[in-house]
């Protein structure tokens, strides 16, 4: 039976993702983007894409590179593409943001930076998709978990392609589209497919599998999970149809968006029921920080999905809709990602450092690598900032939003420091740390250097020989 | 003699702790069977909490080491199986 190995570059993806999150929070505090600017203004687009691509997508990509092989019991296909994909994605995001900066008049540069950046992003996501799809399809039968990821990757492809089309329009090179009007009506569907499909649906699929492991809970039966995938796929198909509708001469309106959202919300309700059941039926009574810190994320999701369609249908102001999208993006997806990063980083670090010593004497537990309760306090600051910032957005107070984002920044910076301390084994007594040259590297796992001498099935070990 | 050796190996495996929970592989229900032949050859059938567990190879090795250290054991065969699949109800009550 093949053993999934460590993903060498996952830590680099996480580091880049966290750097972009800190940058986005700093820009928000500086008053760049919404609410100081309009929702569709270039300044807001810089902020939105730093969060959606820089933070959430890179963190998701890093986590998938580690967990897809584990969850399908197959080695990662084409692992050599992981680092080039990261560089291409970072370059693409920087070029895209430079394009938006040009659009805003902050810098003097050709607007062709926009489609150029989008091209890099398409290339980077294609490399990532190639690795993940090949890995997923190498395991048969194709499991429900794999279907979540494959559907999410399809949404990523549509999001990236539609984004690339938008950039050609914004750069003034959209003549090939003729009279078809994709902007601004296509933007909500682009956002739905990116946030709901690529990031949301995969987070849902992965959390089903990981939470079972993290809490030692019984796996939910497929008949309960399948409706979540089916409903979400239907909602995302509606979003895709909304994006493609202008090509058929149809103008999708608020009702179309609300319909897609309503189906996605139904999927969210079933998902919420299952996650609640996992928490309730867990055999691991004491929750670790990653599962505790996930609870506010689910509260943010609940609030966001319950109120967003109502706000859209009631034609609520930009403020309330922005607040609810903010809760879903940075409260649910951002909070859940930060919470699980603590777990993933500590587990991978333990695996690199102590797994080869298992059974040869006492070794620290995975949880010993995490500084508690300090890590919990950082999460409190982060979520406190998110709640207050969402309220500030809803009542449209610019200064209030900037001030409360400072809380998020402090919380995030604290968590980044904790993740670095985990990699440096700072919580472990000096006597239990390996020699300096064998300690984990900050940005790259020792993926191939620590593989154990396997006791393969059927072979005989002679430990006393 | 074989039953005695199987009991000793079972006791030895209580020292192999899961790094996540800190409980032994025996308490977690990961050890499905321990069989000792009269000549001291021991066969252990075990599982992990999930297929593809990154710890699988390390846990097998740790189990082989712990069993091999028992007096009277001359060889250890560790077999990983997912039939039946592990489930949380297999965890022993604390």
TrEMBL record, chain A:
Q: Which domain of life is it from?
A: Bacteria
User: Which keywords has UniProt assigned to this entry?
Assistant: Membrane, Transmembrane, Transmembrane helix
TM stretches of this protein? 44-68, 80-107, 113-137, 144-169, 189-216, 228-248, 254-271, 292-314, 320-342, 375-395, 401-420
In the UniProt record, does the keyword Membrane occur?
yes
Q: Does the keyword rRNA processing apply?
A: no
Query: What name does this protein carry?
Result: Transmembrane protein
**Organism, scientific name:** Bosea robiniae
Q: Taxonomically, what lineage is the organism? A: Bacteria, Pseudomonadati, Pseudomonadota, Alphaproteobacteria, Hyphomicrobiales
Automatic annotation (TrEMBL), chain B:
Which residues are the signal sequence here?
none
Q: Where are the transmembrane segments?
A: none
InterPro entries, alphabetized: Fe-S_Maturation_MIP18, FSCA_dom_sf, MIP18-like
Q: Which Pfam families match?
A: FeS_assembly_P (PF01883)
The residue ranges of the MIP18 family-like domain are 12-78
Q: PANTHER family in the record, alphabetically?
A: FE-S PROTEIN MATURATION AUXILIARY FACTOR YITW
Query: This protein is called what?
Result: Metal-sulfur cluster biosynthetic enzyme
- Organism for this UniProt entry: Bosea robiniae
């Amino acid at each position: 039976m093949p053993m999934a190995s460590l993903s060498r570059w996952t830590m680099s993806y996480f580091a880049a993702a966290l750097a972009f999150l800190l940058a986005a929070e700093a820009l928000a505090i500086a008053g760049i983007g919404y609410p100081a600017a309009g929702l569709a203004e270039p300044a807001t687009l810089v902020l939105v894409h730093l969060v959606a691509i820089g933070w959430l997508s890179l963190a998701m990509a890093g986590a998938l590179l580690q967990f897809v092989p584990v969850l399908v019991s197959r080695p990662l296909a084409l692992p050599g593409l992981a680092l080039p994909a990261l560089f291409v994605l970072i370059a693409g995001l920087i070029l895209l943001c430079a394009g938006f900066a040009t659009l805003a008049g902050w810098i003097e540069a050709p607007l062709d930076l926009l489609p150029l950046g989008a091209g890099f992003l398409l290339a980077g996501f294609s490399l990532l998709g190639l690795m993940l799809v090949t890995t997923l399809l190498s395991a048969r039968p194709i499991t429900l978990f794999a279907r979540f990821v494959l559907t999410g990757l399809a949404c990523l492809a549509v999001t990236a392609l539609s984004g690339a089309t938008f950039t050609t329009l914004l750069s003034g090179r959209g003549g090939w589209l003729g009279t078809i009007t994709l902007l601004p009506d296509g933007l909500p569907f682009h956002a739905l497919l990116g946030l709901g499909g690529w990031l949301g649906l995969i987070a849902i699929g992965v959390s089903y599998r990981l939470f079972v492991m993290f809490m030692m809970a019984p796996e939910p039966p497929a008949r309960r999970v399948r409706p979540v995938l089916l409903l979400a796929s239907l909602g995302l198909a509606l979003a895709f149809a909304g994006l493609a509708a202008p090509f058929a001469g149809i103008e999708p309106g608020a009702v179309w968006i609300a319909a897609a959202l309503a189906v996605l919300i139904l999927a969210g309700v079933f998902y919420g029921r299952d996650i609640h059941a996992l928490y309730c039926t867990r055999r691991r009574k004491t929750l670790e920080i990653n599962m505790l810190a996930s609870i506010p994320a689910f509260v943010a999701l609940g609030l966001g999905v319950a109120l967003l369609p109502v706000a859209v249908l009631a034609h609520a102001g930009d403020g309330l809709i922005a607040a609810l999208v903010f809760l879903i993006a940075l409260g649910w997806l951002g909070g859940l990602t930060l919470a699980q990063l603590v777990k993933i980083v500590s587990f991978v670090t333990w695996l690199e450092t102590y797994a080869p010593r298992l059974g040869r004497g006492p070794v620290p537990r995975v949880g010993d690598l995490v500084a508690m309760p300090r890590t919990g306090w950082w999460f409190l600051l982060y979520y406190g900032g998110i709640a207050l910032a969402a309220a500030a957005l809803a009542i449209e107070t610019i200064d209030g939003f900037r001030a409360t984002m400072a809380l998020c920044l402090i919380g995030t910076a604290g968590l980044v420091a904790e993740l670095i301390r985990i990699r440096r084994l700072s919580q472990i007594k000096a006597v239990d740390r390996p020699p300096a040259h064998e300690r984990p590297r900050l940005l790259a796992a020792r993926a191939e250097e620590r593989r154990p001498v396997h006791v393969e099935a059927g072979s005989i070990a002679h430990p006393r020989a | 003699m074989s039953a005695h050796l199987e009991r000793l190996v079972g006791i030895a495996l209580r020292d192999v702790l899961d790094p996540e929970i800190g409980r032994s592989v025996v308490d977690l229900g990961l050890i499905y069977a321990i069989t000792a032949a009269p000549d001291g050859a021991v066969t252990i059938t075990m599982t992990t909490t999930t297929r593809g567990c990154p710890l699988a190879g390390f846990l097998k090795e740790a189990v082989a080491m712990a069993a091999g250290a028992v007096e009277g054991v001359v060889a250890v065969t560790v077999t990983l199986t997912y039939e039946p699949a592990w489930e949380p109800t297999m965890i022993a009550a604390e």
